[in-house]
Description:
By secondary structure, the chain is of the alpha/beta class. Helices cover 22% and strands 26% of the residues. The chain contains four helices and six strands; from the N terminus they run αααβββββαβ. The protein has a six-stranded mixed barrel with strand order 1-5-2-4-3-6. The chain starts with a helix and ends in a 10-residue tail after the last strand.
Amino acid sequence: xxxxxxxxxxxxxxxxxxxxxxxxxxxxxxxxxxxxxxxxxxxxxxxxxxxxxxxxxxxxxxxxxxxxxxxxxxxxxxxxxxxxxxxxxxxxxxxxxxxxxxxxxxxxxxxxxxxxxxxxxxxxxxxxxxxxxxxxxxxxxxxxxxxxxxxxxxxx
Length: 156
């Protein structure tokens, strides 16, 4: 009987985790961002306002569906990132230093906080573009192309 209960509990936990909590978060007042991912054509040839160098990591899949600091719901398929200092809405060209691969992201969250050498936490989609999913942490150059307005979403 106990084994059967444990099996049901494990199945329920698996199904709940697979959903990412997005529907529940939206029901609690969150929303997916209506802002499109940055289009590389819109920023081609644009000069950086600020250049940062350091390390980047990416969000755990378990955070999907949680609120970001600006009020959006974290969607791992979007090109977003967290920064301790850059204003929300900033557009950043992130270049992996050892391969030259790059991606444009929009800042919508705060972090990383554990290691000061880490300057950005990237969404899973952005990390995949940089081909860093296996390594987890890579050296990057972050070129801020547009400083955002820093505004948070109203519903949280």
